[in-house]
Amino acid sequence: MIDLNDYRLAWQVYLGVGALAGVIWCxxxxxxxVRVLRFWxxxxxxxxxxxxxxxxxxxxxxxxxAGAAVLTLLTDGVEAAVPILVTIxxxxxxxxxxxxxxxxxxxxxxxxxxxxxxxxxxASARTEPDIGLE
Length: 134
Hints:
By secondary structure, this protein is mainly alpha-helical. Helix content is 66%, strand content 4%. It has 5 helices and 2 strands.
């Protein structure tokens, strides 16, 4: 049987390192020019990193889905990994929906209003400030 304290410590370390990796991932993507794709990649990466699933052999334990999928594929084959892969696929579709919604929300209220262009040639000409040296 697995010691519950070790299990909690392992999840705390995983969540701490995963949070750092998620922040770095989002910082790398923040300058991406396509807003919808940027928010989708951010949410997809975070969901892929933090999605838990039940352990295939010990249903009382939760494990990260990406690691569980790879290990189950290598040890038990594709048939045993299908439920985990379906969960990952559904979560990525949900991440796509969330990314599109975030892009819509932040584009509607987050953009600054367009500045009105001054009309007329004289009003738009640059004038130097007078500092009184004459």
